[in-house]
Design goal:
The complex is a heterodimer of chains A (113) and B (90). Chain A is mainly beta. Helices cover 6% and strands 36% of the residues of chain A. The mean pLDDT of chain A is 83. In chain B, β3 (24-30) and β4 form a beta hairpin. With 90 residues, chain B is mainly beta. Chain B contains 1 helix and 6 strands; from the N terminus they run βββββαβ. Classes of the chains: A mainly beta (113), B mainly beta (90). β7 (104-107) of chain A pairs antiparallel with β1 of chain B, so a sheet runs across the interface.
């Protein structure tokens, strides 16, 4: 998973039927230098993230400016298939999904040494 | 897997059901020389790693196997997990 800030939304008209109705967000991942040491309140003291954008499915109704956790791969498909029967495999053609809207990130130590 | 250092923790109340009760650590990846690469990874932690400790993080099905050895673990929502607390690297 990674931590990032929602930068925007993506619309598309041609989609696989399994993804119809799924909201897609643009999320920019935070890198080490973006998060100041000490308590960082989500959306406040962190500087703007600098990495490339990732397109993520979103079921948690996150919006631009929110800090979110994004999962990749199978975990992303599990996250958007909440009513999956035991043993069933998710069939949505996505590989990234918002799995949490972040309240607080605490960065407690510098790693430069 | 990657090697990195635990630099912090994440809290979230609005989250996917599969993440409920999970401790989520922010891990800063290190390169072969031990320098931080700048990349941050958020990993599920069941080994009770602490801030400042060096850890390895497993991805994909390897991460699910940390939480519950497979093959019956494809219902788990986990793509990254702390797999070991590192004592030394050369």
């Amino acid at each position: 998973m990674f931590l990032g800030r929602v930068a925007g939304t993506v619309w598309s008209t041609v989609k696989w039927p399994e993804t119809r109705g799924l909201k897609l967000l643009l999320v920019r991942p935070y890198r080490l230098g973006d998060l100041a040491p000490g308590a960082v309140r989500a959306g406040a003291e962190a500087s703007e993230p600098t990495d490339d954008l990732v397109v993520c499915a979103d079921l948690l109704d996150a919006g631009p400016g929110d800090d979110v956790l994004v999962a990749f791969g199978h975990a992303a498909r599990v996250a958007v298939s909440e009513k999956l029967a035991p043993g069933a495999k998710p069939n949505v053609p996505i590989d990234a999904a918002v799995v949490a809207v972040v309240d607080r990130v605490e960065i407690e130590s510098e790693t430069r040494r | 897997m990657i090697r990195g250092t635990v630099v912090g923790q994440v809290w979230a109340t609005r989250k996917a059901r599969g993440l409920e009760g999970r401790k989520l650590l922010v891990v800063a990846a290190r390169d072969a020389e031990g320098r931080p690469t700048g990349r941050l990874v958020v990993a599920v932690d069941v080994l009770d790693a602490g801030v400042g400790e060096d850890v390895t993080v497993a991805f994909g099905s390897g991460a699910r196997n940390v939480l519950r050895p497979g093959p019956e673990n494809r219902d788990l929502l986990c793509d990254a997990a702390v797999a070991a607390i590192v004592e030394g690297a050369g």
